[in-house]
Amino acid sequence: MGTAFAIGLVFIGCCSNVVSLELLVREFPGCGNIVTFSQFLFIALEGFIFETNFGRKKPAIPISNYVIMVTMFFTVSVINNYALNFNIAMPLHMIFRSGSLIANMILGIIILKKRYTASKYLSIALVSAGIFICTIMSAKQVNVANEGAEEQSFHALMHWLLGIAMLTFALLMSARMGIFQETLYKKYGKHSKEALFYNHCLPLPGFLLLSTNIYNHAVYFSQSTPVVVPVVGHSVPIMWVYLVVNVITQYVCIRGVFILTTECASLTVTLVVTLRKFFSLIFSILYFQNPFTTWHWVGTAVVFLGTLLYTEVLSSVHAALRGPEVKEKKTE
């Protein structure tokens, strides 16, 4: 029951979150900071009340370690949001971030001196190829959209390439944070909900650096078209409605993943999150009619095939199907 409930939370929360985010970004492409700040504030308040018991519960992991983790987490969140200002389409943004397997493997080899099987290297090659295909096709779309003036086309491409560089840096930083978190959990034990709270609470002062941008977008949101909220009966600017929905669904998504990690093996969690990304991408493309060519579909399929191969889902399914046959042979 708990597993089914958690999977439901992940799919409903995360897919709804993607829709609300795209509705916000389509209206105001630079609104990432106010969205991130709202998410962090809500999750921090919830954690302060229910996880730390209004600050009375001491952390199991030293605060100094959380400061390091939070610095990386805050940097990744802000850079991923800013990348949307550089002609990065939402589907490409989602596909690119699916390449976290590549970054994790590269840094795992360099930092942790890990070695992987041939199937793992093959899966990484597939993910890399898929992202490369989607990236190249998106670059062509940028050039076509600006082919009227050569100088304008060049600046648009440079602008887009800067966004790709930001996504790449955020991808590597996110992988480094994952490795750091893994070493902390090995040393102090798993405290996922505590880490969730501190990851969202400690960065809050950092948003003071972005206060002007956040305030400006708050003004823009307040000037958006008002809509009547059911039950309440009062009219509220529609962008604030989208933001509230985004914050709530983000919490539901993260909470669902947390429950899932306590109920299931990591393989199951990875599979659910991967499938969630795939359905979010498909929904985004169909609902918002984002430009997506045949090559984009090929690249997407290759990315998710590589991800499934990396998590050994296909071999696990094959073993599960062969299980009854193996048992019958043993009884004979």
TrEMBL record:
It comes from the Eukaryota. The chain crosses the membrane at residues 36-54, 66-84, 90-112, 124-142, 154-175, 196-218, 238-260, 267-288, 294-321. The keyword Glycoprotein does not apply. Pfam families: UAA. It is found in: Endomembrane system. GO terms for molecular function: UDP-N-acetylglucosamine transmembrane transporter activity; UDP-xylose transmembrane transporter activity. It is a multi-pass membrane protein. One of its GO terms (cellular component) is endoplasmic reticulum membrane. Keywords: Membrane, Sugar transport, Transmembrane, Transmembrane helix, Transport. Coiled coil: none annotated. InterPro entries: SCL35B1-4/HUT1. Belongs to the nucleotide-sugar transporter family. SLC35B subfamily. This is Solute carrier family 35 member B4. It comes from Xyrichtys novacula. The lineage of its organism: Eukaryota, Metazoa, Chordata, Craniata, Vertebrata.
